[in-house]
Amino acid sequence: MKYTLRPAPGGRDFSAELNPEQYAAVTTDARHALVIAGAGSGKTRTLTYRVARLLECGVAPWRILLLTFTNKAAREMLERVSTLAGSGASGIWGGTFHSIANRILRQHAQRLGYRPGFSILDGDDQRALFRALTKQFAGSTVKKDRFPKAEVLQSLHSLAINQGCSWQQTLDSDYPHLRKHEETISKIFDAYRARKLESNTMDFDDLLTNLVKLLREHADLRADYRQRFLHVLVDEYQDTNTPQAEIIGLLGGGEDSSLMVVGDDAQSIYSWRGANVDHIFEFTNTYPDAVIYKIETNYRSVPAILEISNAAIAGNSRRFAKVLRPARNAGNMKPAIVPTPDNRTEARFVAQRIDELMAAGIPGSDIAVLYRAHFHSMDVQMELTRNHIPYRITSGLRFFEQAHIKDIVAWLRLLSNPLDEVAFRRIVSTFPRVGEATAGKLWQGWLGTAQAWLAAHPEETALTEPHSRIMAKVAVPAAARPHWAGFLAAMDSLHPEDRELTPTELVRLAQNHMDAHMKASYENYEERLEDLEQLTRSLADMADLDTFLSQVALLSEVDTQTAVDPDCVTLSTIHQAKGLEWKIVFIIFLGEGLFPHYRVIQSGDAADLEEELRLFYVALTRAEDQLYLTYPRYNGHSYDSQFCPPSRFLTTLPEELYELWNL
Ligand code: ATP
Ligand code: MG
After folding, report:
1. Which of 117, 386, 490, 620 is deepest in the core (most CB within 10 A)?
2. Nearest residue by C-alpha to atom 11 in ligand 1
3. Nearest ligand to the C-alpha of residue 269?
4. What is the mean pLDDT of the chain?
């Protein structure tokens, strides 16, 4: 018999802050629910209110799991929940699939044959490992045979996992031109997996697949977590890949658990990373009792922006056709299409217009410039700087992926996991005169010794005796000799015998050891020191080294942005802008061949072209009040600039929906 408790007295009136469609989803008792609705209709808001409502109904926070696209999104939603529910949301498990997987694997990875304290390889580390392996297996023939670069191997390896197929299948479907290298690639991939295991490391994909494996193969753990999570909620469901969909099934598929996913099939933009929009279509097959909720009111954009967005996406074949009615009506400036003579002028237009808007009192944080690819932002960055307009940029290298930060972090990684090959190689290759070959020999010596020491001390995960003592017998090639003793002494200093240093102290010390290298290697040494200062500041509240290292690996660029400066304009790729909104949005580089990308046009692949259009739709629907669509008639620099017609996405828009601005 099922008995339902009433909400605690003094609760909020949710129905006043939600429309009836949203309210129905927020309060549903359905075990499996799919909320499917267009952009800006309050899907994320619905999830937030549902979490608040669950807390109000007495669900313990630790029994709620909230999966989001960025860790920041989870943080913001939970902050909002705290104000809504009036009680702590702090125990809720919230974050990206990767960070939740990391959290669970930290406790149980030993069941999969890892040692405690595994390290995480980010994209840059993965490429370093693939480069080393390519050298080993493809050697001298790399150039002659046009053997694929490390980046390509990395994408192939990762895409296959995220599509949930073998790499040979992905090779056939997405990289047919590489078939002739199949044998060598196979050797490299085998070695890649072996090296990761040997060095007790996981890449991002391993975090997902290992969690799947853990829960599939260990019924006791699966039962534990299923019992624990009474409610699993997933935002941006249209962009889940195969292992993620499996994780949802494994964690949210318990007898007593409820699962709610929200998404918009028209905004699926990550198939190039293995996301599969079919998961949303198949939801009702996977969960036959699933209830579907639709929301048909848009709260974000003024009607003129909504109309142009609806018109744009109408060109795509769609399975879930959605009507979106505007809730807003004020401030109806038509979206502007602005052709400019070239990319420099385009940037000047953007900067001048932003300058005017800010002078009229609009805070910079209400303005965004969006583009398809990071390098499209270069001219705008320059122009904004020239006009003294502050901006923050969320595309490009992640903060923690910058070389000097990684140099420092490598010391801490090696300290925490002495088997971390990538970290070790990174450190020793900063010694003058040490190249790949010497680094490889040193690693063999180090690895053998570290393994032997760990085998003799099974209760330890790191080398807790002084490194100089443990490593005394390693044979050191002549090129490395001048620096080896210093390196070991430095490692010892990071691990004093009397107490454990905090992450902040560790960064400071490692930085001292790297100072000479940094001065010699980076021309903008001063700026890089400032970055390191920021790094230590952001560490202040992190208690232990393992937590810190996981954060470093898992936080995206969006996540590491500290409190938003009200003056700062946002520059972002469209992919990174998913789920976000600004009062005023500029979309730049809307030339045919730039967006849609010429490679997609040339391939003639209809599915890829549709994804480009969805990406355009995501961009349009970020805007609340004003929208500027710009493109350069000529693109490039004077000596190689190319004529660039307007994007087909612009020319197919009905003329009455926009205004043409002539510069
Ligand atoms: P996207 O598809 O871009 O992720 P979404 O469907 O998740 O969008 P939200 O971001 O939740 O939409 O909501 C868009 C905006 O509309 C937000 O500013 C939100 O606060 C506002 N909004 C949503 N529903 C309501 C409502 N019932 N009343 C007032 N404002 C609302
Ligand atoms: Mg959303």
Report:
1. 620
2. 42
3. 1
4. 88
